[in-house]
Amino acid sequence: MKRPHHLTAILDPLFYSKYQNKVLIVLICFLKHSTKLKFLFFISLNSLQSPLKMETLTIYNIITTIFSSFAFFSNFGSLIYIIKSFDTKQSFFHILCLDAMLVMGSALISLIMFSVAISGEVLDGVSCSFLLFGTQIPVFTSPTCNLMVSFIRYKKLIDIQNSWFSNKQLVKGSSAILALVLLYGLLIAFINSYFELRSFNIYSVCLEGQKAQMNHVTFNIFTVLLPLLFVVATTNFMDFSSYLWLQRTVHPEQENQGCIVNDIPLRATLISTHLLLLYIGGFVVLGSQNISPAEKYLVAIIATRINDMLRNPLVAIYTFKINDETRQKNATEERERKRQIEIKNAFSRRAKEDNDRLKCIELEERNPDSI
């Protein structure tokens, strides 16, 4: 067997155990005049004799903490962008603003709980339920925000007389609905913990670590997956109905411009909904795979945070882009309209002046003595 390089040998526990005496004699002779190097050397020997290996779950928690930080700052930037770019007193942008704040709160809760877990603190059932609730907030609230935006847009399109709720009522109603959704998520986390259902992988891995076993997903399917699929399907139906309504209107361009200027555009909500569909599909595939709960724990949280990082900022940026293009187009049309009005007024003034001049000439011809 080929002997490895002498530096590699020092770091290799197998080689060290085989050639222990020789290595010690050579290194002690080489380091006997250097106190600092002796100190480092004996630290290395201790680490070789009792190697420190970081637990896999701790590494997973560090990774999820990083992604939670990314999600927090991404939505924080999106929130500032929304406040500066849009009128958040309008119902649509109020909902978009609330969505960003809720994702920030979710990422912050996850960030705190993962940091506590990394520090070595043992999390109990209450703490793990809080982690579950914090991680799952966007799973409940983001599809609800999409549904509210699509439903309000659809009602505004078909209600020409605008006899539906006022903007102030819609703002209050959307906030109340999101509050109820949060209570629903909190209730699910409480039931899962109190009755020890072990239906959520995040909760099980948080509580039991790498010893966690496969979950009983029945409660998860009926309380999370099926309602989520219903909400996403309803949102797609509303968006498709709005699109068909715009195509059937007598003046589709005018209706479409009004929808784009005052609302979140159809394409923006479609982007958000499709990201949610990819997210749900990924979870279904992940649940069907025969992998350990700890690995599912890591992949599920990373997928959630990537969805949180992308969805709200993309909707806000796309909405601003479309609205800005519409404003520029409207400004160009407004300038052209004013130019045509000026031309028309100029022709009218000129025609009036010509008419007055002709009247003066006629008067002069009738009364030549008056000159």
Summarize, please.
The chain has 371 residues and is mainly α. It contains 13 helices and no strands.
Key traits:
13 helices, mainly alpha, 371 residues, single chain
Write the layout of secondary structure elements.
Layout: H1 6-11, H2 13-18, H3 20-31, H4 35-49, H5 56-85, H6 91-118, H7 125-158, H8 167-194, H9 201-208, H10 218-248, H11 252-262, H12 266-288, H13 293-366
Helix pairs in contact: 5-6, 5-13, 6-7, 6-8, 6-13, 7-8, 7-9, 7-10, 7-12, 9-13, 10-12, 12-13
Tell me about this structure:
There is one protein chain. With 371 residues, the protein is an all-alpha fold. It contains 13 helices and no strands. α6 packs antiparallel against α7, α6 packs parallel to α8 and α12 runs antiparallel to α13 (293-366).
Indicate the mean pLDDT. 78
Provide the gyration radius in Å.
34 Å
- Tell me the series of helices and strands, N- to C-terminal: HHHHHHHHHHHHH
Helix content: over 70%
Oligomer: single chain
Number of strands: 0
Question: Strand pairing plus helix content: what structural class?
Answer: mainly alpha
Strand content: under 5%
Q: How many helical stretches?
A: 13
The geometry reads as elongated
Terminal residue distance: 131 Å
Q: Quick one: biggest sheet?
A: none
Unreliable stretches (pLDDT < 50, length at least 5) are 1-53
